[in-house]
């Protein structure tokens, strides 16, 4: 099965922030949509740690969905649904049949950095429709903050991403905040995660 070292390194910290956030959600049977699930390593770990959540993984790439299916089969988890094709830059009506107002939480780990602004806009527009009232969008990754990218490792990451694809790069928290506002959401919290000498910002909208 494909193994992403990055996902192996960050799953625990992302998971603990998610657990803390979901404890605050009313009701203990929750429904979560993961965007850009990649290999599927995250969703199976999240499901193991949070059995009170039904998880819907998704990805734009068939290769990723194959990997997610393999992780689900290997872990025998019954709370993870089969992955759906979902292009987060598309309108929510095309989001794999996920109904409007159905999600308690939407999770996107390292998606906004590895995709174009069109995807960030799609994520915020879609979340505004797909989330229940008081639902949460939780994103993880490095960000620019009000036009500034710091520390130097994040600047290097931004440059590397731009080289891979000129449309990729660290999104600006201020821009995301405005997109959220335009879709009936507000930025509630930003949590700094220290990891292997690097600091990454995780924002929760
Ligand atoms: C850097 S990987 C992160 C994967 C996983 N979340 C993780 O952290 O290990 C980005 C993932 O987003 C997916 N992706 C890119 N653009 C997308 C889009 N517009 N809609 C949905 N998924 C997308 C890619 O196929 C890839 O699996």
Explain what this protein looks like in three dimensions:
There is one protein chain. With 205 residues, this protein is an alpha/beta fold. The chain has one domain (5-142, 171-204): Vaccinia Virus protein VP39 (Rossmann fold). Helix content is 39%, strand content 22%. The protein has helices at residues 5-23, 41-49, 62-75, 117-130, 152-164, 173-182; strands at residues 30-35, 53-56, 58-59, 84-85, 103-109, 131-140, 189-195, 198-204. The protein has a six-stranded mixed sheet with strand order 2-1-5-6-8-7, sandwiched between helices. Strands 3-4 form a two-stranded parallel sheet. Strand 3, helix 3 (62-75) and strand 4 form a beta-alpha-beta unit. Helix 1 (5-23) packs parallel to helix 2. The protein is globular. The termini are far apart. Residues 196-205 have low confidence and may be disordered. Bound molecules: S-adenosylmethionine.
Task: Give the gist of this structure.
The protein is α/β, with parallel strands linked by helices.
Question: How would you summarize the topology of this molecule?
Answer:
Blueprint: H1 5-23, E1 30-35, H2 41-49, E2 53-56, E3 58-59, H3 62-75, E4 84-85, E5 103-109, H4 117-130, E6 131-140, H5 152-164, H6 173-182, E7 189-195, E8 198-204
Parallel strand pairs: 1-2, 1-5, 3-4, 5-6
Antiparallel strand pairs: 6-8, 7-8
The chain binds S-adenosylmethionine.
S-adenosylmethionine binds at residues 4, 7, 35-39, 42, 59-61, 64, 86-89, 109-111, 114-115, 119.
């Amino acid at each position: 099965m494909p193994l992403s070292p990055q996902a192996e390194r960050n799953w625990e910290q992302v998971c603990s922030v998610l657990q803390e956030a979901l404890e605050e959600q009313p009701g203990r049977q929750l429904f979560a949509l993961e965007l850009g699930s990649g290999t599927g390593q995250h969703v199976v770990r999240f499901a193991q740690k949070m059995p009170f959540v039904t998880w819907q993984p998704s990805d734009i790439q068939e290769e990723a969905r194959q990997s997610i299916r393999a992780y689900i089969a290997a872990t025998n988890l019954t709370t993870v649904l089969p992955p759906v094709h979902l292009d987060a830059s598309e309108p929510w009506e095309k989001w794999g049949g996920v109904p409007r107002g159905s999600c308690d939480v939407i999770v996107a780990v390292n998606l906004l950095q590895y995709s174009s602004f069109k995807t960030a806009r799609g994520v915020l527009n879609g979340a505004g429709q797909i989330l229940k009232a008081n639902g949460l969008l939780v994103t993880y990754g490095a960000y620019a903050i009000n036009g500034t990218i710091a520390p130097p490792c994040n600047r290097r990451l931004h440059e590397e991403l731009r080289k891979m694809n000129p449309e990729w790069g660290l999104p600006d928290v201020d821009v995301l905040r405005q997109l959220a506002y335009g879709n009936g959401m507000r930025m509630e919290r930003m949590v700094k995660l220290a990891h292997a000498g690097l600091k990454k910002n995780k924002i929760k909208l």
